[in-house]
Design a protein that fits this description.
Blueprint lengths: L3 E5 L4 H4 L2 H11 L2 E8 L7 E2 L5 E2 L3 H24 L4 E7 L2 H11 L4 E5 L14 H6 L6 E4 L14 E5 L4 H4 L2 H11 L2 E8 L4 E3 L3 E6 L2 H18 L8 E6 L3 H11 L2 E7 L14 H8 L4 E4 L12
Parallel strand pairs: 1-2, 1-6, 2-5, 6-7, 8-9, 8-13, 9-12, 13-14
Antiparallel strand pairs: 3-4, 7-14, 10-11
Helix pairs in contact: 9-10
């Protein structure tokens, strides 16, 4: 179970969309919810135009915004408390990502719940955004929900938690975190392996035409299915397994999530083996940018460098 859940909040309706889901998870797990709003004084240092731009610190403007931030934070916490959630408001100071990461470490946060700020859900989630920057450095799982694209209030995921794994220890690192999340949210886990066919270009007809050995694919799918069956022991009772074939791993993950009516997807990111680094074009990033399904993201720590003798 979770002990401490963090929700980054900036006072906007989009960031507030993560609050009801985080509250429901906190109540289910009996966890304390930290609502963190980062106040960055450097944002309120304008520049005076002229031959040489001179930074001017406006203490009054900064004080006004600090007060507004505190009021927004207090209102959010009061609303959560009224719903029976153990919520604490934390007004942090500094740059957004650094302040959030430092607080997550100091508070021993087990899970972060945050929303994206794209105009159409994950479509505009790009490297450099707050969500992505936090994902690439967080050491605990992050549950990413849609920040826009629907007027309906976000709800707890239901049904299935889809977990794509690829045979690497890196991708399997998400399994205990997925199992924990599934237990708290009341989801059934489904393990997925996507087999990419080893196609041979038909030179006379151009590279667009491909040949694939159907019998070899059947053998490969069976091997992946057996591998998934072995991993079921690490998962809650009732976990199902699925092995499918597709040239695009990310596309098939999204399609399987739709087919299974998955309430969420759980993925590992940032690995050199298994799923590649969470960068534009990688499997994890492609899923995040194109799915409407919330995603539980976990970044395993890189293996320690072997000690070298003097």
């Amino acid at each position: 179970m979770y002990q401490t859940i963090l929700v980054p909040f900036d006072g906007s309706p989009l960031s507030a969309r993560a609050l009801p889901i985080a509250a429901a998870l906190a109540k289910s797990a009996g966890a304390r919810l930290h609502v963190a709003l980062v106040h960055d004084p450097s944002v309120f240092i304008p520049f005076v135009p002229g031959e040489v731009s001179i930074p001017v610190y406006d203490a009054e403007l900064e004080s006004v915004h600090r007060r507004e931030h505190q009021e927004a934070l207090d209102a959010a916490v009061a609303q959560l408390a009224a719903g029976g959630v153990q919520a604490t408001g934390v007004l942090l100071e500094g740059t957004v990502i650094e302040a959030l990461l430092e607080h997550a470490k100091a508070a021993a946060v087990d899970l972060t719940v945050m929303s994206t700020h794209g105009r159409s859900g994950f479509t505009r989630l790009r490297l450099g955004s707050v969500a992505t920057a936090y994902l690439t450095r967080a050491t605990a799982p992050v549950y990413v929900v849609r920040g826009a694209g629907s007027d309906a209030a976000p709800e707890m995921p239901t049904g299935t938690l889809l977990c794509p794994i690829d045979g690497s220890a890196f991708s399997e690192a998400v399994l205990p975190h997925a199992a924990r999340f599934a237990q708290v949210a009341g989801l059934t886990m489904a393990l997925l392996a996507v087999v990419v066919p080893h196609a041979v270009p038909m030179a006379p007809f151009g590279a667009a035409e491909l040949l694939a050995d159907g019998s070899a694919l059947e053998v490969e799918e069976a091997g992946h299915l057996a591998y998934l069956q072995q991993r079921v022991a690490q998962c809650p009772a009732g976990t199902t397994v699925h092995a499918v074939t597709d040239m695009s791993v990310s596309r098939r993950i999204i399609e399987e999530a739709t087919r299974l009516h998955a309430g969420a997807i759980a993925m590992a990111t940032h690995g050199r083996g298994g799923f590649k680094r969470l960068l534009l074009g990688s499997v994890a990033d492609e899923v995040l940018r194109h799915t409407e399904t919330p995603v539980l993201v976990y970044r395993p720590s890189p293996p320690a460098e072997p000690a070298t003798g003097s």
